[in-house]
């Protein structure tokens, strides 16, 4: 049986002034994978390439073990972009009518249950919806045709913590069936830190790492010291460093080892956000 | 079953789950053969990733507290409680003997030592 929902190998795409350079990663079945990176790092480009919305220059993309260009696989994917792309004049009833015609597998009871659960007004035009409501509607629509893979691009950006929490709940509900997986990009690293199983970091079109989230959060640490003492730290012991006016900070990938070796230094826990900042902005060891 | 996760504690979440399930087994709140929630259900309820729960369950299985039957789920193992307690006691004795040794060499009196232990107990 195919183990991965998404498998990407050496994916390349060149635009003027931007290069997606040999991107490789995978999304195992039944997992939630977070995709992080700064604006313009290549997240949306990668997602659009996965969906074959733009043509790749080279490399391979397999979804459910099949070539991603096959039309058949598309009914197995639910996609949400950062905007609600339904026409403003529709109501939820119109959308249900349209979508149930589009998808054979459309589940009306699922759709109506969540419309009620999320208190989305029925019979009102979408133009009167708040951003949070539109986003919830988009996500419900993406899930109501019972896909096995959910791909979201910045879907939780710009939403308040309450709505984001409800959406995370929905993701966790979605993967209760062990076949289903979620691949989502977000700037809000705390969301990813909460529920993701794996994290992929992209920077300037290159994948920096692809790791289990727990390994990142529990093993990485930040070692803080004065500038003089910084020289006494072996270059092998840290991954990246950052200089502030008052001190030096280093990202270490094994905080327990660092604590033992450098007893008089402060070693803090690192959040996903810290790790991302170090990789993107920090100096190299 | 109740599990309370602290996000500010220095302990990793999988360790917190592990400890709380262990103490529930030892105190008899969870009895042998009882089913634990599925990994995915627990992850959903606690709003954490499945892999974190998986790690906790693996540790619990390794220490003999639960048994995982593939396709059926995880159950509290019908282990010998006395045996586990014996095992734990031996570990505690070892740690305390180290503490006693350190206390003696540094001139810490028994009462002071007992006071420290009491403080940790009540923490």
Description:
The complex is a heterodimer of chains A (285) and B (123). Chain A is α/β, with parallel strands linked by helices and 285 residues long. Chain A has helices at residues 43-50, 92-102, 108-117, 131-144, 161-174, 189-195, 213-219, 227-230, 255-261, 272-281, and strands at 4-15, 18-28, 32-36, 58-63, 66-67, 77-80, 149-153, 181-185, 198-203, 206-212, 221-225, 240-243, 248-252, 266-269, 283-284. The model of chain A has no long low-confidence stretch (mean pLDDT 89). Chain B is built from 5 helices and 2 strands, in the order αααββαα. Chain B has helices at residues 13-27, 39-46, 50-62, 81-105, 110-122; strands spanning 66-69, 73-76. In chain B, strands 1-2 form a two-stranded antiparallel ribbon. In chain B, a hairpin with a 3-residue loop joins strand 1 and strand 2 (73-76). The A-B interface holds A 30-32, 165, 168-169, 172-173, 175-176, 178, 194-198, 212-214, 218, 269 and B 10, 12, 14, 40-41, 43-44, 47-52, 55.
Summarize the structure in short.
The complex is a heterodimer of chains A (285) and B (123). By secondary structure, chain A is an alpha/beta fold.
Q: What's the topology here?
A:
The complex is a heterodimer of chains A (285) and B (123).
Chain A: E1 4-15, E2 18-28, E3 32-36, H1 43-50, E4 58-63, E5 66-67, E6 77-80, H2 92-102, H3 108-117, H4 131-144, E7 149-153, H5 161-174, E8 181-185, H6 189-195, E9 198-203, E10 206-212, H7 213-219, E11 221-225, H8 227-230, E12 240-243, E13 248-252, H9 255-261, E14 266-269, H10 272-281, E15 283-284
Helix pairs in contact in A: 3-4
Chain B: H1 13-27, H2 39-46, H3 50-62, E1 66-69, E2 73-76, H4 81-105, H5 110-122
Antiparallel strand pairs in B: 1-2
Helix pairs in contact in B: 1-3, 2-3
């Amino acid at each position: 049986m195919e183990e991965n929902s998404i498998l990407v190998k050496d994916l390349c795409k060149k635009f003027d002034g931007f290069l997606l350079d040999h991107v490789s990663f995978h999304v195992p079945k039944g997992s939630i994978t977070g995709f992080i990176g700064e604006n313009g790092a290549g997240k949306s480009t990668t997602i659009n390439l996965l969906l074959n919305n733009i043509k790749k220059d080279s490399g391979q993309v397999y979804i459910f073990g099949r070539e991603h260009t096959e039309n058949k696989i598309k009914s197995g994917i639910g996609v949400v972009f950062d905007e609600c792309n339904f026409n403003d004049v529709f109501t939820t009833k119109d959308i249900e009518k349209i979508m149930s015609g589009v998808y054979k597998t459309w589940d009306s009871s699922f759709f109506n249950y969540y419309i009620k659960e999320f208190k989305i007004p029925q019979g009102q035009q979408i133009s009167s919806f708040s951003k949070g409501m539109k986003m919830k509607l988009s996500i419900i629509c993406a899930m109501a045709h019972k896909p096995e893979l959910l791909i979201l691009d910045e879907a939780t950006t710009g939403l308040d913590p309450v709505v984001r929490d409800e959406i995370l709940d929905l993701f966790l509900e979605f993967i209760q069936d062990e076949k289903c997986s979620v691949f989502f990009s977000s700037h809000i690293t705390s969301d990813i830190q909460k529920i993701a199983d794996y994290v992929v970091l992209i920077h300037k079109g290159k994948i920096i790492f692809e790791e289990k989230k727990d390994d990142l959060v529990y093993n990485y640490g930040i070692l803080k010291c004065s500038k003089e003492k910084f020289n006494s730290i072996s270059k092998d012991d840290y991954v990246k460093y950052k200089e502030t006016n008052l001190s030096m900070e280093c990202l270490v990938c094994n905080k327990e080892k660092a604590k033992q070796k450098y007893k008089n230094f402060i070693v803090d826990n690192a959040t996903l956000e810290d790790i991302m900042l170090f990789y993107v902005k920090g100096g190299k060891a | 079953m109740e599990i309370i996760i602290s996000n500010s504690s220095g302990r990793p979440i999988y360790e917190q789950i592990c400890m709380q399930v262990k103490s529930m087994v030892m105190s008899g709140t969870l009895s042998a053969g009882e089913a634990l929630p599925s990994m995915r259900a627990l992850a959903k309820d606690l709003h954490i990733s499945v892999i974190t729960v998986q790690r906790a369950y693996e540790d619990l299985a390794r220490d003999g507290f639960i048994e995982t039957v593939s396709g059926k789920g995880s159950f509290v193992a019908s282990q010998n409680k006395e045996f586990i307690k014996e095992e734990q006691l031996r570990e505690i004795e070892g740690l305390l003997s180290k503490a006693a040794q350190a206390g003696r060499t540094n001139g810490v009196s028994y009462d002071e030592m007992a006071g420290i232990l009491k403080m940790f107990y009540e923490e």
